[in-house]
Write a structure and sequence with these properties.
The chain is mainly alpha-helical. About 35% of the residues lie in helices and about 5% in strands.
Length: about 90
């Protein structure tokens, strides 16, 4: 019998991106980030929270690099993949 899907709550208080071209639309980056992170969590879960106890992280470092791009969608998707990598245990909690 299949297990019911788990419910996850991911609260990202603030994402700060510095050094990007002023033509990058923050609202589009946010929309692409949310859509991609939602997809990744649905498909792969949140490995750091797999035991159901929950995890709180104040920050992540050592994540994959983001692409040099002015595409808000590409940047948002890459950012979501980097954050999910951190939630999968790749990266360093700060």
């Amino acid at each position: 019998m299949d297990e019911p899907p788990r419910s996850f709550r991911i609260d990202i208080g603030e994402l700060v991106l510095d050094g990007f071209d002023s033509r990058v639309d923050p609202a589009r980056v946010t929309a692409a980030f949310e859509a991609e992170l939602t997809r990744l969590v649905r498909e792969r879960g949140v490995p750091l929270a797999a035991d159901g106890t929950g995890v709180a992280l104040d920050g992540l470092a050592g994540l994959p690099p983001l692409p040099a791009t002015t595409s808000a969608v590409r940047l948002g998707e890459a950012l979501a993949r980097a954050v999910h990598a951190g939630l999968a245990g790749r990266g360093d909690a700060r």
